[in-house]
Write a structure and sequence with these properties.
heterotetramer, A mainly alpha, B mainly alpha, C mainly alpha, D mainly alpha, A: globular, B: mainly alpha, Four Helix Bundle (Hemerythrin (Met), subunit A), 2 domains, 6 helices, 76% helix
């Protein structure tokens, strides 16, 4: 087997695994969310299909797949069809550079260790930000092409919200990048090895707590999750940008949203929580565990917090979060320069 | 292989560039512009300009074009069905002619110069990386870099002033 | 060493104080500051002159430089002061008479709303005049020459709510003279390279050939300045009109001090004039003619102040006559005595005007002697002094001038002077008898408000009156050897002036003739005007109607000037305005404007307001530039 | 690099040409604006291509500057377009002729 073929096959397998996993995660995240919220609200949630309703996502999928695909007559057909795809594709793409583990021989089945990431590019962080920022097109175009004022408002809100919070998000990460001195995600993970103060691991969440809080808050906004879910606010915009969608297109928007949640959690894990690093046991387990904790927090937030008003959202983003991110960055830069910690 | 990728991306860029200009609705123009930019981003990877690629995606596709779409939607313009004005044809004719002459000049100049073009050197280590660009920005190009920050500040202030309702 | 700057500093301080804070001070404070500053200057002058007297007769000269001023190349002019017997006399006259007039003005101007402004100007004038006479070089003299001119202008036009043509007239006429003076100073400088008195007078005899064209030109130009400032033919016309100003101003500036600056300047430049016989002759003739000419006009005028003003011009003529015949000391002596009696005449007139509520026409006066006892008495003394009756002040000085003319064998000049003396006696007593005796012609409303002036006005009158009695005899007797002459003569002797030999018998004889002439004039005036109903004056006027009209209209000089200078200049200016300025200059400008407007009319078609068109233009430019860059070679 | 520099440059010139045509002919201010962006992108492409060809990073730095300026331009330009639209209810540049003589 030639080396090229080997690499190609390895790559294809990895892509397949990641893709399948993300689909699975997206499906079961819905289940998880329904269960968790039900628990928080002291009710049962899905119970009928399978034990603990575990087969509920599969039933939902089959239902959505076979539903009639309605396309309203007044929409802009081309964009209406394109929008869901534009929404879901960047969600998958963003995951390409996330290192979800160290290296593996898959229990000795492989002849040599394989690194557990799809690609390792030198501008990894920028890549993730770039790709995730493309996700907004799906929402915006869906909102516009539906030719429906609620949808349009949803699209508008979404784009404004994205632009507003992306700034703070990028700035919150710059602190970490200053300390690492590289945009490569594997470098970032590697620099979190060891201990800050035993038994406290040298994760950036402990060095950059403010950065982490800002990042996570912005991640909520970027993924349109409560309390920042204004683009799809059911109560005021009748589900916003996707109110005209049904069947698989509707499913694709949901898939995009949940995969984005997973991506955001994975990025937060990588940047602040040491990624796949852990004391013992296989690294992907640690990684998935941390991501699941963050996903739980996402759901927890949705269950607990009321939605922002739109002006509150903007005020919060520009007048609170952004200055805070700047302050964090300046303090970090000064401290790093003073302590010689810069990368 | 590389040539094939280039040909594909160039074709995408050129075709969608044409479509940017001839679309009747601004939303489609914006979309095709995004596609053009995406194709250019691909070409940047071919040219080993990774940082530029990332910034292209992040700034142009991620921010500037979102802003364009935002404005298009905010204004919610109807399709461009305004009637032709008598001078439209003349203008298009003159403009097109001038543009043809311009590009002709560019290509001619290019052909004159192309013969003298030395074969490309192999990329030196560190070419196109964030680190190299950062070092250049903070050493050789420090002053323009600072000036850029002033420009951005001015733009922020200008945009905020313009966006005030009382204006005009 | 005497510090001379103590003299002018007080009026300067007074000027600054009143100028900046005058409006906020109480009237009494203003009066005290104004009079006090001049009084202190008078005291300082007396001290300085006392110091000068303590020096030996040949070395009475104090010079001091306050500060350097201009230093260009080898030219130097300083803020330098000089006190010698000549300037000592002037300083005393200016400060003492000035002080008395200041005091008088406090009463006279009491009800004026611009009281502080008046004294501001007056103090500025006193300062400038003191600097003028104390200056030790021609440039400083020139500066303050102009400064007193400015004060004169300001004070003539003091009541600017009224039409103030007189101030402008004075200013413009003085410009003619000052232009000459300025040219003279410049010529002096280009010739000798210095303007410092001491150096000029030392260099002049060696550098300038006696009787040469250069020195004649310099002295004639200087004298032109003097005729302007001292109101001589042909530039006297401003002085009678200057009587529009307040009476204390007339007394101080237009009788006692400023108008004598020309005489002082000629006397100061005696070393130059002695080198230029032609200029001397001109000075003498101008002086004599002015003396007679002005006196003849004074014979028939009916405005009390104008009579006195023409008298002033006439008396200034005598002073120039004195200078012209080489009797500088006598001229300056006459200047000093004249300051007393002419100031007194003006102040007396002012007192009368004040008493009559502003009335100046002598045909509406009469029988005021009893109601204005102090005024009439002092006015009578001054009239006697002016007429030249022994032993009053005017007799001594005027007689000396006439005697000098006679002794210099200038009999025609002497005859003119004597004729003038007769006229002087006549018009002075015509004035006196008409105003204070004669018939009561007062307007009824003014009649019972007539009152003697307050003491603040009458005391200066009395002091000046005493001066009329004393100054002449005390300093002028015996002629040629009195205190005054022994004090002042060395200055002029040092400048090369030759004394005129005249026998004591001749002196006595001339004095007798002069007194007789004056007495004759007084007698005629008494005969015609004492009772106020003598028809003789009217008959005389009828009989010589042409002459009378000529005098009444002041020889038609104003009309002549109007026709000869004012109108041509006016018409020329009108022509320049309407033809040259409006048609040519404005025409060119308008035409240029039209041109650009037309060009703009064409060009504005390119400004379509459509951005697209601009973009096309921009694009065309890019194509051209790029084409050039791509294919230039 | 197997793709010749001139290929990049011709693509760049073509995109620039498209931008010019768009700016000169379109009446929708937003599209005009986008065509300006297209021109900027064309220039960026030639910068990067030259940078690779000459093995000099200065081209990348210039692209960075161009992008910064483009961002500033878009912010201000779009704000102006919004202000104009509020006032005139149009973004048709052919109707914006307030500066007409």
């Amino acid at each position: 087997m030639s080396e090229l073929m080997e690499a190609l096959i390895t790559m294809l397998v990895k892509v397949g695994v990641v893709f399948a996993t993300l689909l699975f995660v997206a499906a079961y995240l819905v289940w998880l969310e329904r269960k968790v919220i039900a628990d928080i609200q002291v009710r049962w949630g899905p119970t009928r299909v399978g034990p603990f309703g575990l087969l509920q996502p599969i039933a939902d999928g089959i239902k959505l797949f076979f539903k009639e695909d309605l396309i309203p007559g007044h929409v802009d057909r081309a964009l209406f069809l394109l929008a869901p795809a534009l929404s879901v594709i960047p969600a998958f793409l963003a995951f390409a550079v996330v290192p979800f583990g160290g290296t593996t021989t898959l229990f000795g089945l492989l002849p040599k260790p394989v690194p557990m990431y799809l690609a390792d590019i030198d501008v990894g962080v920028l890549y993730v930000f770039g790709i995730t920022s493309l996700g907004v097109y799906g929402i915006v175009l869906a909102g516009w092409s539906s030719n429906n004022k609620y949808s349009l408002l949803g699209g508008l809100r979404s784009s404004a919200q994205m632009i507003s919070y992306e700034l703070s998000m990028s700035l919150s990460v710059v602190g970490v990048l200053l300390l690492v001195g590289s945009l490569r995600l594997t470098d970032i993970v590697r620099s979190q090895e060891g201990f800050l103060l035993w038994p406290l691991p040298k994760w950036f969440v402990f060095i950059q707590p403010v950065g982490f809080v800002i990042f996570f808050t912005c991640a909520l906004a970027e993924t349109n999750r409560a309390p920042f879910d204004l683009p799809e606010a059911e109560t005021e915009l009748v589900a916003g940008f996707h109110s005209e969608y049904s069947s698989m297109k509707f499913a694709m928007f949901f898939m995009a949203e949940y995969i984005n949640m997973a991506t955001a959690s994975a990025m937060a894990t990588t940047l602040f929580l040491g990624g796949p690093l852990g004391p013992l046991g296989p690294s992907p387990v640690w990684f998935v565990g941390k991501v699941l904790v963050l996903l739980f927090v996402f759901i927890w937030f949705r269950a607990s917090l009321p939605r922002f008003r739109y002006d509150q959202l903007m005020t919060f983003g520009w007048k609170r979060l952004l200055p805070l991110a700047f302050a964090n960055l300046i303090v970090t830069a000064v401290a790093a320069a003073a302590l010689g910690m810069g990368g | 292989m590389e040539l094939a990728i280039f040909a594909g991306l160039a074709a995408v860029a050129a075709v969608s560039g044409v479509l940017v200009v001839i679309q009747r609705h601004a939303v489609y123009s914006a979309l095709f512009l995004i596609i053009t930019m995406g194709a250019l981003a691909g070409l940047y990877i071919l040219l080993e300009a990774h940082f530029v690629w990332a910034v292209q995606v992040l700034v142009y596709a991620g921010a500037i074009m979102v802003l364009f779409l935002f404005v298009i939607m905010l204004l919610n313009l109807p399709r461009e069905d305004v009637p032709w004005r008598p001078d439209d044809f003349r203008r298009i004719l003159i403009g097109g002619a001038l543009a043809v002459v311009l590009v002709g000049e560019l290509v001619l100049a290019l052909l004159f110069q192309a013969g003298e073009q030395a074969p490309a050197l192999p990329a030196s280590p560190g070419f196109g990386t964030t680190e190299t660009i950062g070092r250049l920005l903070f050493t050789e190009f420090l002053f323009p870099f600072e000036v850029t920050s002033v420009i951005l500040l001015v733009a922020i202030v200008g945009a905020m002033v313009l966006a005030k309702k009382q204006l005009l | 060493m005497i510090d001379l700057w103590w003299i002018p500093i007080w009026p300067l301080l007074g000027f600054l104080l009143l100028g900046f804070f005058g409006r906020r001070l109480r009237k009494s404070t203003v009066a005290a500051a104004a009079c006090g500053s001049v009084g202190l200057a008078a005291v300082a002058s007396l001290v300085a002159v006392g110091g000068l007297l303590s020096l030996p007769a040949g070395a009475r000269r104090v010079e001091g430089v306050i500060a350097p001023w201009i230093q260009v190349g080898n030219f130097q002019a300083d803020w330098g002061l000089l006190l010698d017997p000549l300037s000592a006399v002037m300083v005393l006259v200016v400060s003492v008479v000035g002080f008395l007039i200041h005091v008088y003005a406090v009463g006279y101007m009491h009800d004026d709303q611009d009281f502080p402004r008046f004294f501001t100007y007056l103090n500025l004038f006193t300062f400038s005049m003191l600097m003028l006479v104390l200056a030790n070089n021609y440039l400083l003299l020139y500066v303050f020459w102009e400064a007193v001119g400015l004060c004169s202008y300001l004070l003539i036009g003091f009541w600017f709510e009224r039409p103030a043509a007189a101030g402008k007239k004075a200013f413009i006429v003085n410009r003619v003279g000052d232009f000459g003076f300025g040219l003279g100073v410049m010529l002096l400088w280009t010739t000798l390279g210095t303007l410092h008195y001491e150096q000029v007078f030392a260099l002049a005899p060696t550098q300038l050939p006696a009787g040469g064209g250069l020195v004649t030109a310099i002295t004639l130009l200087l004298f032109l300045g003097a005729t302007g400032k001292s109101a001589q033919l042909p530039l006297y016309v401003w002085l009678p009109d200057a009587m529009e100003g307040p009476t204390p101003v007339s007394a101080l500036i237009h009788a006692a001090t400023m108008v004598t600056a020309g005489v002082y300047m000629v006397a100061r430049s005696s070393a130059l004039f002695n080198l230029a016989p032609l200029a001397m002759g001109t000075v003498a003739w101008i002086g004599a003619l002015t003396a007679v000419f002005a006196a003849s006009i004074a014979l028939v005028q009916t405005d009390i102040k104008r009579v006195v003003a023409y008298s002033t011009i006439s008396q200034l003529g005598y002073m120039f006559l004195g200078c012209g015949v080489g009797a500088y000391a006598s001229a300056i002596f006459h200047l000093a005595t004249h300051a007393f009696f002419k100031a007194l005449l003006f102040l007396g007139s002012g007192s009368v005007i004040h008493a009559l509520g502003g009335e100046q026409d002598i045909r509406k006066m009469g029988q005021l002697k009893a109601r204005l006892p102090h005024t009439s008495r002092t006015f009578y003394w001054a009239a006697l002094a002016n007429a030249g009756i022994i032993p009053l002040a005017g007799f001594w000085s005027k007689d000396e001038i006439l005697a000098a003319a006679f002794a210099g064998h200038r009999y025609l000049l002497w005859a003119l002077g004597s004729a003038g003396a007769f006229m002087t006696a006549f018009y002075m007593f015509r004035l006196y008898y008409t105003v204070f005796e004669g018939k009561d012609n007062l307007d009824p409303p003014a009649a019972h408000q007539v009152h003697e002036s307050p003491p603040v006005m009458t005391y200066p009158l009395l002091v000046l009156g005493a001066g009329c009695w004393l100054v002449g005899a005390l300093f002028g007797f015996p002629p040629d050897h009195g205190l005054y002459h022994r004090f002042v003569e060395p200055v002029f002797a040092a400048a090369g002036t030759e004394p005129h030999a005249i026998s004591p018998e001749a002196t006595l004889g001339l004095a007798a003739v002069a007194t007789a002439i004056a007495a004759l004039g007084i007698w005629v005036a008494r005969a015609w005007y004492k009772t106020g109903d003598n028809p003789a004056p009217a008959q005389a006027a009828e009989r010589h109607l042409g002459l009378y009209r000529l005098l009444w209209n002041k020889w038609y000089v104003d009309e002549l000037y109007t026709a000869a200078f004012v109108e041509p200049i006016r018409r020329g200016a009108l022509w320049l305005w309407q033809r040259f300025d409006e048609e040519m200059i404005d025409g060119c400008v308008n035409e240029a404007g039209e041109m650009f407007r037309d060009a703009g009319q064409l060009l504005r078609r390119t400004q379509s307001g459509y951005v697209m068109n601009y973009v096309l233009g921009f694009l065309a430019g890019v194509v051209v530039i790029l084409g050039y860059l791509a294919f230039r070679g | 690099m197997t793709v010749p520099l001139s290929a990049y440059l011709i693509l760049s010139a073509f995109l620039f040409f498209l931008g010019v045509v768009g700016v000169a002919t379109r009446r929708n201010a937003l599209i005009v604006f986008m065509c300006i962006e297209l021109m900027l992108n064309a220039v960026n492409l030639s910068f990067v291509a030259f940078a690779r060809s000459l093995n000099s990073m200065a081209g990348h730095v210039f692209v960075f500057f161009v992008m910064a300026v483009a961002t500033a331009e878009v912010a201000v330009g779009l704000a102006i377009i919004i202000a104009i639209y509020r006032n005139r209810e149009t973004v048709d540049v052919a109707e914006l002729n307030l500066l007409k003589w």
